Automatic annotation (TrEMBL), chain A:
Statement: the UniProt record of this protein carries the keyword Amino-acid biosynthesis: no
Cofactor(s) of this protein: heme
SUPFAM superfamilies in UniProt: Fumarate reductase respiratory complex transmembrane subunits
Recorded family membership: Belongs to the cytochrome b560 family.
Single GO cellular component term: membrane
InterPro entries on file: SdhC_prok, SQR/QFR_C/D, Succ_DH_cytb556, SuccDH_FuR_B_TM-su
Protein name: Succinate dehydrogenase, cytochrome b556 subunit
PANTHER family per record: SUCCINATE DEHYDROGENASE 2 MEMBRANE SUBUNIT SDHC, SUCCINATE DEHYDROGENASE HYDROPHOBIC MEMBRANE ANCHOR SUBUNIT
Residue spans crossing the bilayer: 21-44, 64-84, 96-116
UniProtKB/TrEMBL annotation, chain B:
Lineage: Bacteria, Bacillati, Actinomycetota, Actinomycetes, Kitasatosporales
Organism: Streptomyces piniterrae
Heme recorded as keyword: yes
Major location (coarse): membrane
The name this protein goes by in its record: Succinate dehydrogenase
KW Transmembrane (keyword) present: yes
Keywords: Heme, Iron, Membrane, Metal-binding, Transmembrane, Transmembrane helix
Any one annotated GO CC term: membrane
Listed transmembrane segments: 48-71, 91-109, 130-150
InterPro entries: SQR/QFR_C/D, SuccDH_FuR_B_TM-su
Protein location: Membrane
Gene3D superfamilies given in the database record: Fumarate reductase/succinate dehydrogenase, transmembrane subunit (1.20.1300.10)
GO terms assigned for molecular function: metal ion binding
Length: 126, 155
């Protein structure tokens, strides 16, 4: 690692990169999501047609990815607030990040079946 | 005496009354070219808004995900009838309206920062931000209109 650069790697930099990437992805989804929801003003059929896309296996898996991105952005955002406003935040920023990752893993494991149940039931369903 | 502490004040000065040292301006000194009107605390308020809206959005968005994608069958139950059922309540209308505005402004300000960081040419940066602001205003107004004019008996 060259000296004198801000890009020092490790937890601080990579959490910043992941926060940016997830933020941009979530914003693009939000844009599409407001457009698809606006179809309720067109007709019930138009809305149900586009929601059917959300129930296909590929898009259902992407929804799990969306949950992953939002959960990371939310938890790491709380970490950023702690680093900015809590006097000991900067000192414990690495521990805070690994706590974020730990909570994220638990919540993602818990969300696996509920979010993907539509696909799991369609593909292997009883 | 070690090399690091060798005094330098006995070196012959390059400058004297007739040859003054050049003035180096502080990096942020205001000059004749600095516009007065743009010196606001906009970026400070933007920074604060990201944190305050972020805390509210954690509750609103995670609650939204829980209802839409986790509880009661996940995505299976979503359809026009489900939306009609939820928007029959002013509470959920207000929830969605506040979530729409905060999320769009939070996201737009985030993308503004990203554009400022990576778009190096002045023209590129300007037009990307115009595109962003146009899309943001359009999306916020469209979403607001949909929430306020929703009609469960559209047909």
């Amino acid at each position: 690692m060259p000296a004198g650069t801000l890009y020092r790697g490790r937890e601080g930099m990579w959490s910043w990169v992941a926060h940016r990437v997830t933020g941009v992805l979530i914003f693009f989804f939000l844009f599409v999501h407001v457009l698809d929801t606006a179809l309720v003003r067109v007709s019930p059929e138009a809305y149900d047609d586009v929601v059917a896309t959300y129930k296909t296996p590929l898009v259902n898996v992407m929804e799990y990815g969306l949950v992953a991105a939002i959960l990371f952005h939310a938890l790491n955002g709380l970490r950023v607030i702690a680093v900015d406003f809590w006097s000991k935040g900067p000192k414990y920023q690495k521990q805070l990040l690994w706590s974020v990752v730990g909570v994220w893993v638990v919540l993602m494991a818990g969300a696996f079946y509920p979010v993907l149940q539509h696909t799991l039931r369609t593909l292997f369903g009883s | 005496m070690s090399a690091e502490t060798t005094p330098v004040n006995d070196a012959v000065s390059l400058y004297d009354v007739d040859h003054p040292a050049p003035v180096i301006e502080p990096p942020r000194k205001r000059t004749a070219k600095t516009p007065k009107a743009t010196r606001t605390n906009f970026e400070l308020y933007g920074w604060l808004f990201m944190r305050l809206s972020g805390i509210v959005l954690v509750v609103l968005v995670l609650g939204h995900l829980l209802i839409q994608l986790v509880l009661d069958g996940g995505v299976s139950k979503i359809g026009f009838a489900f939306v009609a059922g939820r928007w029959a309540s002013p509470f959920w209308q207000a929830w969605d309206l506040v979530m729409l505005w905060l999320a769009m402004l939070h996201g737009a300000n985030g993308l503004r920062t990203v554009i400022n960081d990576y778009a190096q040419r002045d023209n590129t940066r300007f037009w990307l931000k115009m595109l962003l602001y146009t899309a943001t205003v359009f999306t916020v107004l469209l979403g607001t209109l949909v929430i306020f004019t929703f009609d469960p008996n559209i047909r």
